[in-house]
Amino acid sequence: MSKKPTYSKYLQLDKILDAQNSLSNLAGKSIHDEMLFIIIHQIYELWFKQIIYEIDSIINYFSNESIKEMNINTIVSRLNRINDIQKIAVSQIDILKSMTPMDFLEFRDLLNPASGFQSLQFRIIEVSLGLKGSNRLKFSKQSYKDFLQKKDVELVEKYENNRSIFDLVEEWLERTPFLESEEFNFWESYKDAIRQMLDQDIKIINDNNNLNHESKKEQIENYKKIYQNYNSLFDKVEYNKLIKNGSKRLSQKASLAALFIMLYRDEPILQSPFKLLTKLIDIDQSLNAWRYSHALLAQRMIGTKIGSGGSSGAKYLTKTLEKHSIFDEYANLSTYLIPKSNLPKLPDILKNKLGYYFINKGNNNE
After folding, report:
1. Distance in angstroms (rounded) separating the CA atoms of residues 84 and 78
2. Rounded to whole angstroms, how far apart are CA atoms 108 and 49?
3. FRET pair for 86, CA 20 to 30 Å: which of 107, 183, 349, 360?
4. pTM of the predicted model, to two decimals?
5. What DSSP string describes 141-189?
């Protein structure tokens, strides 16, 4: 008998295709749409497994003391893969919409108390990306772990005790060079550029004859607040206050490094780090897109009724949108972006460090 793999054996299709045991069928009254419901959620869990596989590999790369440029490109590629999977997960909700609320009601009661709220893999994804327990919205004043099986709690706590992608990227950013050196002090140069830009805007407001005194006063007051917003980024005491009250989580040093990467993203060495930060934002927003689409689906299917796991359905899912964001501080750095024309000019010696170059020792033309 040949030991070479066949398509069916390699994919273990006998296990996969025999894993759709509908409760309605077991109860002796088969409900057609329950098969779709099972398969869609099984597909979700398979995609979650792949996402965790990619996240684990990314964490492994970031756990090294130094990260090579080629590894950053690999990390970006895997983050992009995660985001592509998330897009598919969101689009699958459209298939569930082919099932009407009346169709769902036919087998909904059979699901109690099972719920997507109990998905271990989805919780591992959130934890591995960087969602902290203190930032997590509680359900019925209970921890999400109270709804997991004991063996699942042990596994998710293992992930909680490890450093997340958020933690590791923060540490990586804090090691970013170039911010302060003999050639260039980014902080001071950037603050000067900000002052010039805002002062110019205030001058435009004062010189605008189409604005009355009250309108000018209102807009100038607004610019004073913008000044304060920028100043908090540079003032260590003020920044630490924001961290202490929970307004910020990302360290000041990491925030500044991320901002530097965003501002000078066209420099060759910074292009991959910029893509990495952008992809983290994409993944975070895709997670929220999934939560939002799921909330709309829950509202469509059960209205204001309680979910099968006892949650408040769409209302609970909607609340998680803001509370469970992980990388929103990177997205919020857009607040501090300035036009390219206002950027501090980098000294040539620094531009060389930020570029790709090689030395041809065997040049016969010298």
Report:
1. 10
2. 26
3. 107
4. 0.85
5. TB-GGGGS-HHHHHHHHHHHTSPPHHHHHHHHHHT--SSB-SS-BHHHH
